[in-house]
Amino acid sequence: MSSPSDPSAPSPATPSPATPSPASGCATPIRLPPVLPPEPCCCGDDPIQGLRQLFVDYFQGRGMAAGRDPATRPVFLRLHGAAHGRFIVDPDLPESLQVGVFKPAREYPVWVRFSADVQPGAPDLKGTTGIGIKLFGVEGEKLLVPDQDALTQDFILQNHDVFFVDTARDMCEFTCASLHGKSAQYLKDHPVTQQVLDAMEKVVDSALTTPYWSVLPYAFGEGRYVKYKLEPIEAAAPDAPPDFNDPFYLRADLHARLRRGPARFRFMVQLRTDDAAMPLDAATVAWSESISTPVQVGILELAQQDADTRGQSSYGENLAYNPWHALPEHRPIGSISDARAVVYRASSENRRNVNGVPLAEPTVPRPAEYAPGVPYPAAVDTRIVRAAIHPAIGIARVGNSEHDFYLAPQVAEPPPQGPGLKPAATRPPTRDAAQSRSYGTNAAGEVVRELTADWADIAWTVHLANSKAAWYQWQIAMDIPEAATTTLPLRNAKVTARDTLVIDAGPQRINGRNAPAVDCSGAFTGVPVKIGELRTDADGRLLVLGGHGVSASPTGTPIFIPSDGNSFINADGWYDDTCDGTVEATVNIEGRAIPVESAWVVTAPPNYAPQVKAERTMYDLLHDLYVQAGWLPAAAKVSFAQDVYPILQRLSGLQWVNQGFATLFGHGGRFDFEDPALIERLSALPPPKAFDPNTEFRRQIFNSFRPPNPPDGNQLPWPWLYGDAMEVPAGESPRQNASVSQTQYDLLQRWVAGEFVNDWATRPAPPASIDDVPLAEQPAMLDRAALEFCLADAFHPGCEMTWPMRHLTMYNRPFRIRRRPPGVQPPNYGPTLDQATTLSANGPLHAQSPGDINRWMGLPWQADTAFCRAGYDTAYDPFAPTFWPARVPNHVLTEADYAVVIDSAQPRDRRIEAFVNRTSWNKPLHGSTAGQMEQMVQIFGSMGLVEVRAGVQGDPAFPSTMMVASYGPQVAPADATSLHAEAPAPMLKAAAAEAHPKLGTRALPRGANFATHEEAAAAPLPVRHGPKRS
Fold first, then answer.
1. b/e map of 752-783 (b: 16 or more CB within 10 Å)?
2. Inter-CA distances, 730 with 713, 875, 1026, Å
3. Going by C-beta distance under 8 Å and a sequence separation of 6 or more, which residues neighbour residue 773?
């Protein structure tokens, strides 16, 4: 082998990649799958041949044998992006620097490749970043055979100034030891290598803002040597700070910055001025810039461009960068450079042959455009490098049907699923199954396809748990000022074996198409409890079904103790079968495993009004949380149809579940937001430069909404929903009532100002199923749809999830719950939990484990559902405010009244009376507080399900579509019918007069949720009772 210090020596031999060097007697036969060369891997006899066998024949061959397609480089295989630009030689270079390509006033087209020396599955973070630069139009014979006539010149640099070994032999020995599992001992024996490797693990914010070094020396004409340095000068600002949780964050940053503007670097040479301090074959030794300052010889300029342009990444990947693609004046120096000539050439030929790409160097660069002024036709990178499970938070619901189930909502406006799978009088409520889908994305994060059993081998793992009984009592949302002095005791505080209170199903696995069901079961104090079930569909998607709504006390303890107000929804000795936990998947595509972002699933109580939305949904709450935190952008434009109308219409949608809302917002009401004439007025844009007759009308509607941070407890503003600190009678807390989110409020403000798009007439029909949604939008739609039918108000504690969900610390990115790493035990907070601990850095609002979302909810859930009603302050209004009518109705249109409404033979006045009449949804519950809770445990499956029915066509007195409550077989016919013909319920006059002296003995109106004023006044927590009215 030629002396590395002799620049006039011929270029190294470059044997064919498929033929071992005949000079070596230690060659390992080439096979697929490859065989690891035995130690010492030729490192002593022929280190260059050894490196070629290790990197090309074995390491690169192993990836190809495993099915990696396309075949990749053995090193720096992670592509951040390819970009075109120009290399401009400084016009005023002194004659001593006018060497080779560095001739004054020369300008070369360039293509660069930004990359990382990390393996598939490893993140960009702390990987070595590299850049390959290929100049075009460089005349003169080159060093590398058979490309000696090529018109290209390559430079290769990385973001660290030294290499981690000195020579080719050192590199061979390190690689051999590493592949044989002996790297630890090698690094112990070679501390300098360990030190450099540690230093190379640096955090890089952007490939366009980090400096690069050639690391190895190069000839600079006759008898002189240099190292190259690339120093950033200019780059466009990023779209956002680097997201180090994104394993491909450097690609995302590079592409975003180049879309926004050009990037420029100084290309510099550092002349060797001290032979002793600047060795030529000791790559771990830095050339001190205090001895020789790098001198600029040119500018590397990358034009503003879309690095995702069709074919651009493929073009960059198919280029071969080799420092021996060089003029003799720029000959690489040193034994590692000699090895590069062989290894890089062999790996390039290997890769190109396997991928079916020609071996020759390009003669002209790829044009920046398809034609002058015409961009390349669009295309999508279809190589899947990672996957994510959606919805990020799935919602399943319990039900007592044995086999039947519905899919939980997968679009934001799903069509009605009909009045059940069976006739209303006989069917039990079906469970809602949370379907999980896996979507494959390319390196830019773009969705390539949904991954089903047709495309990949997918195995699912779900870990469900219910830890309610082992957690602290529910009393109040612990993040509000009213909870400052609250101390929560443990539920079941006398039970010392706390683990026996946790129903933990453990990790359960399922895979394949239509796989046999897998039960998710645990035990409560030794009693077996099924909390869920896993299935797959015909495409291999996961289905998580909840339990059957079973709640019980194995020891027969009471569900509620009247003398202990805090026993409400804190029933010691009880369990229910709701739960939550993690959803994971392994995905293998053609033998290649890809990383998969996990998800969460919550199983919740039934949705008794599946077509009704709350004024502020859990999606609204989380979307607002991320917008206010800067994680998501606010809407650039306000759409009336998509942004404004839903806020208004939901008030009218609540007419089917609450009498108060039906009166003002329902059909024929003053603010019937489903009235076409009213919609036309609300959606009208202000006329340009003319009087707007609707501005004041929009303003009055806006002023009717309660602001997100109200000054007091005024109950009149919309929406008429209780807040987290409600009292009876109403107090002055700003949290007495709920409000819309800040984001919703901001949208309404812009609407009032006329800053909106009137797209009502051109709005498209909402997609009926997730398969009708464009592929790229499906993941976000699944994330949204799952939460659109969950509650955000009021957290007392709620139906599906509660107040911890509004804390940013619960998430690592939008909608992704932060997961506690496996094997890490959660903190033990002791026998009580106060606000300071709850909100502390070590509190329970950070990383979560299975069962941690559900543990804050009521126990059992039926007790909560039975007694979260409307109109607690009967002196104010027996129908409003209300808690959760969108999930747990208050006042409903019964089937008996509906039958009268649609019967055209009935007298018109009778039909109108039947339509406006509403009946208490809680009518089937009788007796004491505890008795009604226990009834709900038994008959929850027969409670009224509010379903869409055909209305009356062509008659303005009635809507064309209605929602009607149908009850099941466990509810007596008299309890499932209207109250309108019945006499008022009896009451204790003296007690009522004492509670409400101004009302005297006046009965409550029909349809109210409470039979008497006394029952309302005695309602259990979460209602907090304030001072009586004088």
1. beeebbebbeeeeeebeebeebeeeebbbbbb
2. 7, 11, 7
3. 411, 767, 781
Alpha helices, DSSP H, located in 566-638: 618-629
CB of 589 closer than 8 Å to CB of 710: no
Q: Which amino acid is present at 499? A: D
Quote the CA–CA distance of 86 and 84 in Å, as a whole number: 7
b/e map of 330-356 (b: 16 or more CB within 10 Å)? bbbbbbbbbbbbbbbbbbbbbbbebee
The owner of tokens 């190069």 is 218
DSSP annotation string for 250-308 = HHHHHHHHHHH--EEEEEEEEE---TTTS-SS-TTS---TTTS--EEEEEEEE-S--TT
Residue 841 gets which letter from DSSP?
Answer: T
Arithmetic mean of pLDDT, 517-534: 98
What pLDDT, in 10s, does the model give residues 330-350?
A: 999 999 999 999 999 999 998
User: Which residues does residue 230 pair with via DSSP β-bridges, in sequence order?
Assistant: 212, 267
What is the per-residue pLDDT for 485?
95
121 band by pLDDT with thresholds 50, 70 and 90:
confident
* Chain mean pLDDT for the chain: 91
Q: In this structure, what is the dihedral angle of CA atoms 9, 15, 17, 18, given to the nearest 10 degrees?
A: -170
Q: What is the mean pLDDT of residues 204-214?
A: 97
Task: List the end-to-end C-alpha distance of the chain, in Å, as a whole number.
Answer: 105
- The string of pLDDT tens digits covering residues 726-755 is 999 999 999 999 999 999 999 999 999 999
Q: Please state the pTM of the whole predicted model.
A: 0.71
Taking Cα atoms as reference points, which of 307, 252, 316, 255 lies closest to residue 72?
316
One-letter amino acid at 537 equals D
The amino acid at 365: P
Beta bridge pairs of residue 721: 882
Check: CB of residue 466 under 8 Å from CB of residue 441: no
Tokens, residue 54: 């290790």
Q: How is the chain split among helix, strand and coil, in percent rounded to 5?
A: 25, 20, 55
